[in-house]
Amino acid sequence: MYQFHCLNPIASKGLDIFDENYRKSDTMEDCNAILVRSAKMHDMQLPSTVSVIARAGAGVNNIPVKECAEKGIVVFNTPGANANGVKELVLAGMLLASRDIVGGIEWVQKEKDKEDIDKLAEKQKKQFAGCEIMGKKLGIIGLGAIGSMVANAATGLGMEVYGYDPYLSIDAAWNLSRTIHHSKTLDEIYSQCDYITIHVPLLDATTRMINQEALAKMKDGVVILNFARDLLVDEDALIAALDSGKVKKYVTDFANHTVAGHEGILVTPHLGASTEESEENCAVMAVKEVRDFLENGNIKNSVNFPNCDMGTCVAVGRIAITHKNIPNMISQVTKILGSEGLNIADMTNKSKGEYAYTLIDLESAASQESLEALESIEGVSKVRVVK
Ligand SMILES: NC(=O)C1=CN([C@@H]2O[C@H](COP(=O)(O)OP(=O)(O)OC[C@H]3O[C@@H](n4cnc5c(N)ncnc54)[C@H](O)[C@@H]3O)[C@@H](O)[C@H]2O)C=CC1
Ligand SMILES: O=C(O)CCC(=O)C(=O)O
């Protein structure tokens, strides 16, 4: 029996995929798996029983990914599963920034009891007028799952799209409309675009990438959209640029005391992925990843360990070892198994940066002593008997 704990509500369409061998626990104690959306995990003490965390979503900045790798905890996310939900809100954000739709709705609400509201509306509506997005230049920073969808949709709406992503994956490149202008520098995006939307992960290298220097290079009256993470933007510099008229509107999905209620800023409460479809897609993908990992040891879509797939185990036993990506690891492992007379039927070893993963199918079950010997190898973080 496996136990899992949800740190945030996870769509039942996903949780229903857990079968009778799984028990949902109200606490993390004794759990094998944790499912999470945006809960901040950096200060949490995880029990040693936890071997997997699945983020039902894309961004993993709420999870101590490296510390987990050190402890042999495999962290998954669900790439692309909520991208359409975010894309649609980005399009809405562009439209809301282009005309004062919110102001117009608030005006009608305020005047709703006036007898001549229809005549008043015709007189007053000019204060809410704006511009169209067709023909405008949209700069997209980060052309992954979300950025590429925004790019294609905006092209369909008649915008001229510029994309910047020095690490663009081949899959994402294939998905992009050929009309999208490939920007080789951020400066080109800054100097050309009327709307700039950012879709990169929050990393040390991307923190506050939209800063005073970047803002100074942008066109007057630019609209900036941030549906990725608030810390990507130096919001004090952004507010100064808004107040000076350099920036026309800032649309952000991240409510905080700096932006909430500020003139010219449209703030939504982290709603990008809050659609039935996105929540279900993420939950289904996350639960499938957890099950395949716990039941077969396979890894797909981990952010701290490599992909590894040996299918369903048909041998007598399978063990999974998380370890550092260092020399001499495999020889130490096979020596321990060999000295106990354990024959290896199949084996895969993969690495990702500093960390590596070894899955071994055995023709007879490993003893407790050999498992302990494996665990004591320097650089090994976890040894798990999958079957
Ligand atoms: N508002 C919301 O509810 C949601 C927000 N997000 C945020 O959006 C981010 C992006 O999500 P996805 O598109 O699904 O991720 P993704 O991983 O598919 O795409 C990210 C892209 O950014 C690119 N990139 C990385 N560093 C870059 C840099 N310095 N300059 C330009 N490009 C760079 C990568 O090459 C990749 O193509 C997530 O990390 C998350 O923070 C994601 C989903 C929902
Ligand atoms: O789960 C959510 O609502 C947040 C989605 C998100 O920000 C992400 O997937 O990175």
UniProtKB/TrEMBL annotation:
Gene3D superfamilies hit by this protein: 3.30.70.260, NAD(P)-binding Rossmann-like Domain
InterPro entries according to UniProt: ACT-like_dom_sf, ACT_dom, D-isomer_2_OHA_DH_cat_dom, D-isomer_DH_CS1, D-isomer_DH_NAD-bd, NAD(P)-bd_dom_sf
Catalytic activity entry: (R)-2-hydroxyglutarate + NAD(+) = 2-oxoglutarate + NADH + H(+); (2R)-3-phosphoglycerate + NAD(+) = 3-phosphooxypyruvate + NADH + H(+)
E.C. designation(s): 1.1.1.399, 1.1.1.95
Keywords from the named record: NAD, Oxidoreductase
Top enzyme class: oxidoreductase
Domain ACT positions: 318-387
Assigned protein family: Belongs to the D-isomer specific 2-hydroxyacid dehydrogenase family.
Name of the protein described by the UniProt record: D-3-phosphoglycerate dehydrogenase
